[in-house]
Amino acid sequence: MRKFIAGLVMGTALITTPLAAQADTPKNALVMAFAIDDIITLDPAQIFEFSGAEYAGNTYDRLIGFDNDDVSKIYGVLAESWDVSEDGKTFTFKMRDGVEFASGNDLTAEDAAFSLQRVILLDQSPAFILGQFGLTPDNVKEKIRATDESTLVMELDKPYAPSFVLYCLTAGVGAVIDKEEVLAHEVDGDLGHEWLKTNYAGSGPFKLNKWTAGQSLSLTANEDYWDGAPEMKRVIIRNVKEAASQQLLLEKGDIDIARNLEADQLASIKGDDDIKLMSKGKGALWYLGLSQKNEYLSNPKVREALKYLVDYTGISETILAGRSQIHQAFLPEGFLGAYNENPYSLNIEKAKELLAEAGLPDGFSVTMDTRNTTAIMAMAQSIQATWAQAGINLEIIPGDGKQTLTKYRARQHDIYIGRWGPDYQDPHTNASTFAWNPDNSDDATAKPLAWRNSWDAGPLTAETDAATLERDDAKRAAMYVDLQKKVLESGPFVVMFQETEIASMRKNVNNFVLGPSFDNNYYRFVTKD
C-alpha cells in the first residue's frame, strides 16, 4: 500500500521529498484526490462533464456570475454591466477594462464575441445553451458582435425572460477565451479546437500546467489575475477513484482534500481531529436513462415498473449516506418551480403487476452502463438485486467515465446510470434536457437527455419552449411543475436522488468553496494555516 500511495503523490514538481519523511503537503499547494476520469476535453466550448466543468470554473472567467449562497443575485464578471432593449431581444454588455489573458494579450469585447460565436460554430454538446436563442452557424457572427473594444452586442430571436438569458451566460459556454492565442493554433478551420482540448487560453485565477488523461490535472496560479492572485500557487489533482485510497491519503496528510469519500469512509474519519468536513447541496441528480430503442424499455408499463424497483431509502441511507436526498422530479430543490413530491417507493409486487400488464410476467434481460466508481457500482448492484426480484436480469457493464459517457452520447446503451448537473440556475436548464427534444433522429443537431434516450417528447417540447417566454414567475413556476409531472408519468427516466457534495479536508485547509453547481467549486480563496 505504501508503494501505491507513493505512485499517486510523487511525480509532481511540488512533491520532491521522500514520502516517509513527508508530514504535510507544501504550504502553497492544494493537493486533492478526486475521481476525474470523466474529463474528455479542456475546451470550454466542448466541456460537458462534472470534473471538466470544475476545471473550467477555476481557469476561465465568464461574462456573468452569481452568488453561491443566493443564486438570485446575478453580477457581472467580465461583463461589468448590461442593458436590455425595449423589445427584450437585444442585450448590450460593457466589458471590464484592464483584464489580460494569461498569454499577456488584452481581453476585449472581440474576444467575448469570438468565444460565444465559436460555441455555436463548433456545435459541441453544450452549444444548445446558446443555440436556444435562435443562434446558428449561419447567423451567429451577425447576431453576436463587438461594436468596439468594450461593447458586446447579443441579438436574440425572441423576448426571453432576461434572467434566463443571463443565467445561460453564467454557464461554461460564457467563458471568454483568447482569440489571438487560439487562432494561432487553428488547423483546417477548426477554430483551435484540437489544440484547446489539451491546452489553455483563458484569463482565470489559475492556468493549466498539465493534464494527463485518467491520471492527474495540475494548475498554476495566474499571478497577474485581475481580481487578485490566489495564495495557492499550485493545484494538484490526482485521479483516485477508490474511496478507501482517498481516505488513506487524507489521513496520512499526503493530500489536503478528499473529494469522493463514501459512507464507510465518512463514518470512519468522523472522530479524527485532523480532518474536517464541508457539505453543500448541489443541483445534481442521480438518475437512470432508459433507451427507447430497447424493445422492453419502450413499453410505458415497463418504465413504470422500474420506478417501483429501486430501493430509494436503502440507497440514500447507506450507499449515499449524508450525500443525497430522495428526489424524483427533474428540477432540483432550490429552483423556480421545483416539484418535491416523490410518488415512487420500492414495491416488488406492484412492479410485477405492471410487468405482467406489459406482457412480460417472467421479466427480461437488459444491460446498464455504469461508471466504475465505488458509489455508482454499489447503486447499480442494489438496483440489480431488486430488479432480480421481479425477474429482470440486469447485466452491469462497468467502464470509466469517458467510456460510459461516450457510449451514452452515441445512443448505444440500454440503461445508463449517472448524474446530471444543471448548466445554469434557471429551470429551463433541466426542462430543456429532460422534457425537450425537437428532433429525435440519430443525426439531430440538439442532443439533450431526451434525445440520448431516443425519446420523442411530443408536445412537451413546445410547452418547454413556452415556459422560457413567461415573465410572471408564479405562472412560469406552475408551467414547470406541470412539465415535471408529465415526465414523471411517461418519461424514460428514473430520477432517484439530489446530491449533497461533501469535501473531506485536513484541518489546516481554509476557504475551499463548494457551490450549488460543480463549476462553482472554487480553489482561488484557499489558504492554509
From TrEMBL:
Where does this protein reside within or beyond the cell? Periplasm
A single GO cellular-component term from the record reads:
outer membrane-bounded periplasmic space
State the Pfam families in the record.
Answer: SBP_bac_5
Q: Which CDD domains match?
A: PBP2_NikA_DppA_OppA_like_7
Signal sequence, renumbered to the chain: 1-23
**Does Signal count among this protein's keywords?**
yes
Q: Do the record's keywords include Magnesium?
A: no
One GO term of the biological process aspect: peptide transport
Q: Which UniProt keywords apply?
A: Signal
| Boundaries of every Solute-binding protein family domain copy | 73-435
GO MF annotation, one? peptide transmembrane transporter activity
**Stretches assigned to coiled coil:** none
Quote the PANTHER family the UniProt record gives. Answer: ABC TRANSPORTER, PERIPLASMIC OLIGO-PEPTIDE BINDING PROTEIN, PUTATIVE-RELATED, PERIPLASMIC BINDING COMPONENT OF ABC TRANSPORTER
Q: Tell me the protein family, please.
A: Belongs to the bacterial solute-binding protein 5 family.
Please identify the protein, giving its name as recorded.
ABC transporter substrate-binding protein
